[in-house]
Amino acid sequence: MSNPATSFEPYRRRLLGLGYRMLGSMADAEDAVQETYLRWHGADRDKVSDRRAFLMTVATRICLDMLTSARARREEYVGPWLPEPVLDTAALAHVRTCAPYDHAVPPPCVRTRSMRNMRSSCPHSWRQRARAISID
């Protein structure tokens, strides 16, 4: 069985970017990445055919769980949402910056956001990604 830490590290930055885009908070994104690592550590890694797809799917599901949790509903922010500042911009180097008109369009639902985030990282079809996060 392969070492979970060395097989996970190449994907940490991508998972952190995914978590930040979905959750809007670097602290929550780091929590999601740590939970993803714990699940990766407990998984049978020899049976995983595509590590990146597996890790992105697990991280997306964890982020969805965090967004729909009771804690997230209690801490709902009132007013315009502004992402928290990120000190380590290298971790988010591949994240698209917002254009001024992005705030004119209402934000998409959580599942639609996760589908869009997975589009850039998973080579699978829309239907396979939808099945991965249970949208069917």
Polypeptide structure, described:
With 136 residues, the chain is mainly alpha-helical. It has one domain (4-75, 100-132). It has seven helices and no strands. α2 (12-23) packs across α3 (26-42) and α3 (26-42) packs across α4. The longest helix is centred in the N-terminal third of the chain and has 17 residues, at 26-42. The chain is globular, with a radius of gyration of 15 Å. The chain starts with a helix and ends with a helix. The model is unreliable at 99-104 (pLDDT under 50).
Element pattern in H and E: HHHHHHH
Question: Over all CA atoms, what is the radius of gyration?
Answer: 15 Å
Summarize model confidence as the mean pLDDT: 76
The CA-CA distance between the termini, in Å, is 34 Å
Question: What percent of residues adopt helix (DSSP H or I)?
Answer: 40-55%
Number of strands: 0
Sheet/helix structural class: mainly alpha
Give the helix tally: 7
Taking pLDDT < 50 over at least 5 consecutive residues as the criterion, the unreliable ranges are 99-104
Q: How would a crystallographer describe the biggest sheet?
A: none
Oligomer: single chain
What portion of residues belong to β-strands? under 5%
List the keywords:
54% helix; 136 residues; mainly alpha
Give a quick precis of the structure:
The chain has 136 residues and is mostly helical. Helix content is 54%, strand content 0%.
Record the SSE blueprint.
Layout lengths: L3 H5 L3 H12 L2 H17 L8 H17 L2 H5 L35 H10 L6 H7 L4
Helix pairs in contact: 2-3, 2-4, 3-4, 4-6
